[in-house]
Design brief:
The chain is of the alpha+beta class. It has 1 helix and 5 strands; from the N terminus they run βαββββ. The protein has a 5-stranded antiparallel beta sheet, with helices on one face. The mean pLDDT is 91.
């Protein structure tokens, strides 16, 4: 695994991300804003696993590419019963 970079919600994501990932990041951020979530202090962490990008938000939301190059978003896991 290779660490990529970190960036804040609302900032421009790294240009190295494929377009499908960029769209997925924007979609997640728009959904948070629509829900009234204050994510102004949250950051994305980009890592690379076998040359495939994985973006994880501070709340646990993850975005990765499937074998066809489509972005897959996994919501955070709720540990509450």
């Amino acid at each position: 695994m290779q660490l990529g970079t970190r960036w804040s919600v609302g900032q421009e994501p790294p240009t190295a991300l494929p377009e499908a990932m960029l769209v997925a990041v924007r979609t997640v951020e728009e959904e948070l804003a629509d829900e009234g979530v204050d994510a102004s202090t949250w950051r994305w962490t980009l890592t690379w696993l076998e040359r495939r990008p994985i973006a994880e938000l501070d709340d646990g939301t993850r975005i990765h590419l499937d074998p066809l190059g489509q972005a897959v978003t996994t919501p955070p896991h709720d540990d509450e019963p």
